[in-house]
Amino acid sequence: MRTVRFGIIGCGMMGREFASAAARWMHLPQMTVRPEIVAICNRTLAAPKIDWFKEHVSTLEQVTSDYRELLGNPDVEAVYVAVPHHLHEEFYLEALESGKHLMGEKPFGIDRSANDAILAGIERHPDCFVRCASQFIFFPAVQKIGAMLEADAFGRIIEVNAGFLHCSDLNPDKRINWKRVLEFNGAYGCLGDLGPHACTVPLRAGWVPLNVRAVLSNIVPERLDDQGRRVSCETWDNATLLCDMKAPNSGEVFPFTLKTQRIAPGQKNNWYIEILGTQASARFSLNEANALDVLEYEPGGEQTWGRINMGHEVAYRSITSEIFQFGVPDAILQMWAAFLYELEHGDVPSSFARCVTPAESVLWHRLFTAALQSHADGSTISVT
Predict the structure, then answer these.
(1) Predicted local distance difference test score (pLDDT) of residue 179
(2) Which of 79, 115, 165, 258 holds its CA 20 to 30 A away from the CA of 200?
(3) Which of 304, 302, 274 is nearest to 288 (CA)?
(4) Which domains does the chain have, with CATH numbers?
(5) pLDDT recorded at residue 300
(6) Which residues of the chain have pLDDT under 70?
(7) What pLDDT is attached to residue 334?
(8) What are the beta bridge partners of residue 345?
(9) What is the pLDDT of residue 301?
(10) Strand ranges (DSSP E) for 194-277?
(11) Helix spans in the chain (H)
């Protein structure tokens, strides 16, 4: 089995999740390539998160606070860069210049200009394999929806609704973090943080947003900082987008609603997708992560929603029995399997078994940029 030696830049939650996935690689018996984490970089080294890596990652050889030192390490073949949005352009481009394969984080650039620069860097370095992290497409129910899309099972698309809702900022006494600061998160606000996840299935289906009418909300305009001072929250808490979406193969246009909310009462961490078609419909929500609701019908027949209880039916075979339930750590493991499988083999078993591509990130940047203008003008804006 080939080993790909990784460096992690940004040792927060998702860096630890990658380390956990790498430690569970024996769950994937058909993989012919595996990750090995040999280097980590974090802005501060005197932190519990660094001690966690030192304690749990036995293959670790380099610990540094300078990401350029990590990128200069010849033993590092690939990097996972999980840093705030304002650092994406600089860090991703330097990773490419150093010749490293790259798994980046969404939104793949703080704004459209940064995204353009990153895509230009990728074109200059065609030998570097680059993908963007987004784990939710790998839930078995979503893989089933992907198979239905590939088989054209829905017929003509009537409407699609997707979103990502959670309550992380519902408490007004929560201290401000970087996601509410314009300099670090960018003008997209919750769209840049949550929107790429919600766009994954629609964009992978090949649908293209033509225009957008957006309503953005700053629900908690001030929070306390770490020094107890009241400061402005500069980014959007919640966003609702209504688009005309086009199916390129048929040319048909249908409504698409996208919701991203950091203040969603009653929600915990709910990524969802609903597709309504003339021959079949399907809906999935993380609130019921192992259930897929499907409506299939013949013309003139009864319309009855049915529920499929999904198990561990995954894109990349696991030792876990198919009758067992699936969770977010399993989705992250599948995402990393997809990254390494495509790096090794140059292709994936199906189109929905692939990580988010840089080209897909271009589409959500176009959409989010138009959404900002739409909200500012109170009008419908073309997505170009």
Answers:
(1) 95
(2) 79
(3) 274
(4) 2-132 (3.40.50.720), 139-324+355-382 (3.30.360.10)
(5) 82
(6) none
(7) 98
(8) none
(9) 83
(10) 208-217, 222-224, 230-232, 238-246, 253-261, 269-277
(11) 13-23, 48-56, 67-71, 88-97, 112-124, 140-150, 182-185, 190-204, 328-345, 358-377
